[in-house]
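Anyone up for a design puzzle?
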């Protein structure tokens, strides 16, 4: 359970918190880089700049996603959150490239690190802030089914691991005197950031391409339908998709042709309500068909 009621952990409030934390960590990490002249800490500060830009864009997309359906967008604006995830991935990749460039230059011309203790202390404090916020955002993302929150939380955790790697690297430099370790750690950090950036872009692309619902959600749908199935009612052609916070399922419901329209509609309403109760945020569409009628989707004319 979360420490605060769900109404206090809305995506907008958490993203505003992410913006504030990003500004604090930018200040701390930039100061750490300034007093140490470590390219590893510089890479850490650069990623925090990306955190700030990502949180601002995510907040804008979440605000758009909450707009109600209109004439031009009859299914709502929920997919706007996928743009946030994709944009965040692109920014992460750009930051990683910048970090690698700075690290290669420093690797060619190693420089001593100054005031290691203060630099590490500032980095640890900023990482603790990011880690705490990421933990809260992960939990809220599950409650609100928010792609943007999840993406921002993943980015913050990447930042935490980045800082951990930098701390280890700088400590090793201080203990061994091997100045080349500092840029090597920065390159390793950049490679890890690249991996997370490509992962976020991939997730965004799958969401924009109407990816099916998660396996656990599909299981709940199938379990609910099984409660209504018997020798007079059956379901087929179950199709699902995700759209931001929303989940959609379309299916055919077969029943005796002798039933009245009112009776058939009443049963369909019961199934729809059961599905939407079982899966929060689900929108169900059921097409009624007589038991002896089958729908066909492989007609060549439908592919033209």
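Challenge accepted. My sequence:
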């Amino acid at each position: 359970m979360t420490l605060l009621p769900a109404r206090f952990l809305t995506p907008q409030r958490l993203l505003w918190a992410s913006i504030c934390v990003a500004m604090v960590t930018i200040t701390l990490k930039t100061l750490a880089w300034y007093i140490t002249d470590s390219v590893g800490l510089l890479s850490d500060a650069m990623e925090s700049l990306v955190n700030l830009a990502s949180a601002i864009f995510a907040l804008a997309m979440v605000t758009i996603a909450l707009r109600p359906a209109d004439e031009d967008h009859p299914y709502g604006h929920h997919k706007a959150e996928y743009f946030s995830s994709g944009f965040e991935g692109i920014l992460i990749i750009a930051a990683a490239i910048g970090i690698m460039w700075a690290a290669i230059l420093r690797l060619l011309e190693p420089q001593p690190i100054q005031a290691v203790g203060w630099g590490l202390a500032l980095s640890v404090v900023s990482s603790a802030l990011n880690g705490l916020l990421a933990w809260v955002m992960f939990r809220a993302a599950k409650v609100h089914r928010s792609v943007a929150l999840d993406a921002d939380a993943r980015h913050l955790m990447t930042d935490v691991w980045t800082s951990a790697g930098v701390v280890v690297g700088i400590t090793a430099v201080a203990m061994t005197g091997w100045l080349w370790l500092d840029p090597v750690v920065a390159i390793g950090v950049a490679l890890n950031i690249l991996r997370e950036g490509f992962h976020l872009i991939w997730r965004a692309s799958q969401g924009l391409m109407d990816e099916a619902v998660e396996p656990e959600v599909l299981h709940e749908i199938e379990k609910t339908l099984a409660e209504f199935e018997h020798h007079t009612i059956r379901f087929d052609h179950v199709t699902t998709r995700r759209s931001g916070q929303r989940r959609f399922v379309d299916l055919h419901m077969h029943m005796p042709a002798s039933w009245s329209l009112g009776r058939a509609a009443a049963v369909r309403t019961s199934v729809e309500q059961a599905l939407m109760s079982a899966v929060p945020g689900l929108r169900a569409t059921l097409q009624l068909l007589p038991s002896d009628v089958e729908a066909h989707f492989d007609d060549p004319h439908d592919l033209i």
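A detail worth pointing out: The domain at 215-303 is CATH 3.30.70.1350 (Alpha-Beta Plaits).
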